Amino acid sequence: MLLDFLQAKPSHNMAEINEYVESLKIAYVTVRRDLKGLQNEGLVSLSYGGVKTNEKSDNSTIKHLNRLNLNLKAKLAQKLINQGDVFYLVGAGTTCEEFAKQIKTEVKVITNSWFVYQILLKNSYIIKPILVGDKYREPSGVFFIGSFVEKALEIEPFYKTFVSVTNIDYNGNVYNNNEGESYLEAIILAKAKYKYILADNSKFNSMGYEHFCNIKDVDGIITYRVVEIKPEYLAKVIN
After folding, report:
1. CA dist., res. 158 & res. 52, Å (int)
2. Cα 222 to Cα 239: distance, rounded to the nearest angstrom
3. Looking at residues 144-155, what average pLDDT do you find?
4. Same domain, yes or no: 86 and 8
5. What is the pLDDT of residues 87-125, one digit of tens each?
6. What stretch of H or E contains 191?
7. Rounded distance between C-alpha atoms, residue 203 and residue 49, angstroms
8. Boundary of a domain, candidates 53, 70, 88
9. Same domain, 204 and 155
10. Do 125 and 85 fall within a single domain?
């Protein structure tokens, strides 16, 4: 229903979307979740003040390109891993899962994602997979911030982190679409010595709901191709 409304024209501002939502008495949190899902499927792009619909493409082609993108990005990230590293792999979704599958170096990995943890358990290169969490968010399979997590971050030291994100705008602001998760990511980035962002090219030039850092605050951003970003941030891109 929401997709049909959005595809009626190339773009919609937030006022139009809010009017549509109110007319159907849909909870705004539900719309936020659905918009994020449509963006992950490549059907829409969230941008400043609205939503833009993408051109329809063959579904098998989209899936193939997404898989290629994920593999390339995961292999790029592997170049930043050294034997014996202890690092935090933050976030949910296919990016982090693919990253966990492709680790081919003996390392210790901490994660807040139940699904990533299951993959780490099956990877013989992982010396010790650690799952930390407190409050559980079922749709994404991640644990986010709580008093237990903050204590666990003190007990399990790490010096490197790879963080999956939902959006990066033109000014280099980085987002997650969940408040609890973005708060956790901000804390982990503050504790890590080496900080890397994982983001496929569809995440660029779009805004999310919870801003938690800027590209200037990290050591690098791992992606396949940058769509659009301020020139001064291009030096941060690892591709």
Report:
1. 39
2. 6
3. 67
4. no
5. 998 877 777 888 888 898 999 999 888 888 999 999 999
6. helix 179-191
7. 16
8. 53
9. yes
10. yes
In single-letter form, the type of residue at position 83 comes to: Q
Task: Give yes or no for residue 57 having a pLDDT over 50.
Answer: no
Q: Is there a single domain that holds both residue 38 and residue 83?
A: no
Which domain, by its residues, includes 202? 61-238
Q: Find where tokens 């709580």 sit.
A: 146
Same domain as 39, residue 79: no
The answer to whether the CB of 238 falls within 8 A of the CB of 221 is yes
- pTM (two decimals): 0.69
Backbone φ and ψ of 107, nearest 5°: -145, 165
SS (H, E, C) 116-155: HHHHHHHCCCEEEEEECCCEEECCCCEEECCHHHHHHHHH
| CB burial readout 169-198, b (16+ within 10 A) else e | bbebbbbbbbebbbbbbbbbbeebeebbbb
Do 105 and 211 belong to one domain?
yes
Q: How many other C-beta atoms lie within 10 A of the C-beta of residue 30?
A: 11
Residue 175 CA: distances (Å) to CA of 29, 119, 197: 17, 25, 11
Q: Is there a single domain that holds both residue 167 and residue 74?
A: yes
The length of the chain is 239
CB 146 within 8 A of CB 179: no
Label residue 86 exposed, middle or buried (CB < 10 Å: 0-12, 13-18, 19+). Answer: middle
Q: CATH number, domain at 189?
A: 3.40.50.1360
In this structure, are residues 132 and 153 in contact, taking their beta carbons and an 8 Å threshold?
yes
Task: Answer for the pair 168, 178: CB distance below 8 angstroms, yes or no.
Answer: no
Whether 159 and 213 map to the same domain: the answer is yes
Report the distance separating Cα 60 and Cα 169, nearest Å.
28
The pLDDT score that the predictor gives to residue 141 is 58
